[in-house]
Fold Type-4 uracil-DNA glycosylase.
Amino acid sequence: MITSFSASGLTARHIEALLEFFQGAGVDGWVEDEVIDRFAQSALEAEQAAMVRQSRGAPGQPGAQAPQTRNFDSSYSQPAQPQGQVQSRIAGQAAPPPLNLPSLNRSAAPEPQAQAPVSTSTDPAVIPGEQAVKSAREAAKSAATLEDLKACLAAFNGCNLRLTAKSLVFADGNPSARVMLVGEAPGRDEDLSGVPFVGRSGQLLDRMLSAIGLDRSSVYIANVVPWRPPGNRTPTPQETEICRPFIARQIELANPDFLVFLGAASAKALTGNTDGIRRMRGRWMEYDAGGRKIRAIATYHPAYLLRSPLEKRLAWRDFLALKQALSA
């Protein structure tokens, strides 16, 4: 992706935030500072060609020269300007650089071109489908411990998100804790560190846990999708379905007493509930973890609370309900 912007009027903080957004969105190139007016260049070339034809004379008249054909085997070079009048037609603007047109002669040997960096990953991309979901179920089922499950995820090649993510974001906290929190997918900060909920939303989550007497040593944190989608986009239904057997097995192996779904996406993926988060939050439900029923509750995702701080009061009620359940 290539982009351009004007930094006029922006503070250093604005530029820093903009660059962080561009990096997260996958921007990998910048246009040059000097803009080339292609419309003016086209008009300039057309007028030059007309002046050359006029200097040669009309066909069939004495002294007229035979029309010459352009040789496209090499880069196109602009004809000389007979009177130097064309340049003055574009006031205050220098002539743009000549275009390098590709050779139209198939017999000509191609010019050497710089090769793009080749990815060192040997894992090919796969077509998401039922076969990938089946492979995920078999791999997750084979894991006897959380360490085995993490190794299975690291070796699993059925999800294409692994090709663009920098890290496998498996879990954080205490696997033996009574409370397990499940989000949707890691973001940029999580992808860089390999730990879930470490960015701004993670800092807010830490404060929310601290408000009810908990911290990361007393909870277990994971995501439905363990790889960051490019540009922090929402995981596709196929990607979620492929990763769902792993988080389901992770919940079975962790065996918590309470589940907290951070956002509607994780709740819908694991319970099949189609309600929105406003209707779903604050109500206790049951999650079937391999025959064992686990009490679960959904609340707002911390990232949403950063955008909508007025909803923090409702999330606070949900965490108070969790605190009451823990003390019962």
About this structure: Strands lie at 2-3, 29-30, 171-173, 179-183, 219-223, 258-262, 285-289, 292-299.
